[in-house]
Design goal:
Layout (H helix, E strand, L loop, with lengths): L4 E2 L1 H9 L5 E5 L11 H7 L6 E2 L19 H10 L7 E5 L5 H10 L5 E4 L2 H7 L26 E2 L1 H8 L4 E5 L3 H5 L17 E3 L6 E2 L5 E2 L2 H10 L7 E5 L6 H10 L5 E4 L2 H5 L15
Parallel strand pairs: 1-5, 2-3, 2-4, 4-5, 6-12, 7-8, 7-11, 11-12
Antiparallel strand pairs: 9-10
Helix pairs in contact: 4-9
Length: 286
């Protein structure tokens, strides 16, 4: 099984040699309700030599649903401008929960040379490692060739069919309050709630705040799924509010040895707006 993580110590050593074939991407991002932009945080401080990539800029601009996977050409054009080609080793990090989305996007477009910085920006800062301020350094454009990998994306019809299948587990990464319908969805006009058959496994449970927000150990991740009665040994579909934190669940499922998972890209942003789809709400939590 591939090692999709890189530790801060390893990255620090790597950057000392400033290799031409390595690009570090800060992919920090905020929900619209936050009222701020992560690019401002990047300018105030980032890993030396890192480049900023905005999830909104690399998502499908024509979709009625947010953060949807774009076309091959759209993605390729954007990452090419960031100095990335098909021989580039990409390392992604953030200050929250977006790195797995970028990891999934690169792999979905045929680029497996991508790793996630374990602990991300928070661990890097906590360890007192070097910080650079200001805009990105000058970038030389390269040519990236994107080729969509089949079987990575679940459509709304796939999810509807999976609800009635005994061989598929649907896991939802949102907070319990949003899943239960007790809080807003995070997107204007989109109600909270959950789809039939979905199992709530909140994404925050897969990070360890006592270890600078590294991913939890495999045995802990397995326990989180088990406590929710989520059988991840079967086919798995991950979902969330808009297809971002669902990638965290997929990352953990794959780390635990099951590559047979798909992301429902539309997630609740699509499901919650579709009048023809059932939406469940819990009146109270046990």
């Amino acid at each position: 099984m591939a090692n999709w993580l890189i530790q801060t110590e390893k990255l620090s050593t790597l950057l000392e040699n400033t290799p031409d074939n390595v690009v570090v991407l800060d992919c920090s991002w905020y929900l619209p309700e936050a009222g701020k932009h992560a690019k401002d945080d990047f300018v105030q401080g980032h890993i030396p030599g890192a480049r900023f990539i905005d999830l909104s800029d690399i998502s499908d601009p024509d979709s009625p649903y947010v953060n949807m996977l774009p076309t091959e050409d759209f993605f390729a054009a954007h990452v090419s401008q960031l100095g990335i080609d098909n021989e580039t080793d990409v390392i992604v990090y953030d200050a929250g929960y977006v790195s797995c989305r970028l990891w999934w996007m690169f792999r979905t477009f045929g680029h497996d040379r991508v790793r996630i910085l374990n602990g991300g920006w928070r661990k890097w800062k906590a360890e007192g490692r070097p910080v650079e301020v200001g805009e990105s350094r000058p970038i030389e454009t390269r040519s990236f060739n994107a080729r969509l990998t089949a079987g990575q994306v679940a459509t709304v019809d796939d999810v509807r069919a999976a609800i009635d299948k005994a061989d598929t587990t649907i896991v939802d990464a949102r907070t319990a309050a949003r899943f239960d319908g007790l809080e807003g969805s995070g997107y204007p006009g989109v109600a909270s709630g959950y789809m039939p058959g979905a199992i709530n496994t909140p994404w925050v449970r897969f990070f360890d705040p006592e270890r600078n927000f590294e991913f939890v150990a495999p045995e802990k991740a397995r326990a989180v799924f088990a406590e929710a009665d989520a059988d991840i040994s079967r086919n798995v579909i991950t979902t969330c509010g808009s297809g971002v934190t669902a990638c965290i669940l997929g990352f953990m499922v794959e780390q635990l040895g099951n590559p047979d998972w798909r992301l429902y890209d539309g997630s609740w942003h699509e499901w919650g707006q579709r009048k023809d789809l059932p939406k469940l709400v819990k009146q109270s939590r046990s």
